[in-house]
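Sequence in, structure out.
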Amino acid sequence: MGGFLRGTLYCALWYGSIVAGFLFIACPLLPLLLFSPPRFRKCGELLFSCWELYSTALLDVFGVKIYVSGDHISPHESAVLVMNHRTRVDWNFLWAAMYQACMPNVACHKLKFVLKDPIRHIPGPGWIMQMNGFLYITRRWEEDQGRLSRTLDYLITLDSRSQLLIFPEGTDLTKSSKERSDKYAVQQSLQRYDYTLHPKTTGFTYLVQHLQHASYLDAVYDLTIGYPDYIPQSELDLIKGKFPGEVHFHIKRISSADIPMHDSTLRRWLENRWSDKEGILKQFYERKAFSAEIWPTPKMLPLRAAFGFWSILTGLAALLLIVSPIFQLWTLIHAVFFIGLSIFSTGFSQIEMGWYWRWKSFTFRAKRS
């Protein structure tokens, strides 16, 4: 029971902080989009980065230690990040790793995930990620290519040097996904993997080549995640209070000058990275560490400030949802709005990008006149 209460509290604070940020900060920012989409984008990214501090602080409070080794990540680079997808909750620990990995280690990176389309429908987290410009894919390449192209062009136009994370394996490592990966390996006369799945190369190749052609790719970062003790396979494990004691990350930066540009060569390059990753993970689970040179503990003051601020905001949101009819109406209006966007459009980010080009045209004509 103790574990269940602990896990429930963690998930309630995590989820509640997202809802509170959405209602108190993100929704009031919506009118800014009408007057200045670039400022709206910057404010939204700053909000999300500040919230990531709270997610990092929660892990520390609940006893999860994050260890990072390898290369630092520059938050000012336009980069593609690739990572093995060991469990469904890898991303929850990645935000804490980014806090340590980015130099300087403050809320200044612009990490965006490439995610499965159904995630955007989740009330609260899905809506916030839509507003933050996360990239959603449907596994129908004709549609996905158009979505990725519009989003990348928008980021390039805004000169928003973001870090785009993609899980090339496409799904987390489970018994069934490993069986499919092994079957593919047999068909293609490839090595069978024990710690990773064979990567899908289409999405990664498109992201990299699109940025290369625009001269907007600074680096590719290869991230490897490992769990030396307990591996939480899904969100249900977290709800039950089954947290890993440690989560380790190893980061390798590859300069854009060393990234192939030809399609087939780039695909083979990613496959070779995954073969190397399999070997790295094999050694990790033997030694329980990627490297003896683990980075020092990050600054705790920003995490403590974030923990206090977001906890208070979460408690206030819960209180107002109970006692305030006005706040209840505010919540209902925005929930209906985003549910409608999820059902009748491809998401808020597509609306934002469509409005940006009209706004830019209006602004240009106003300046000329």
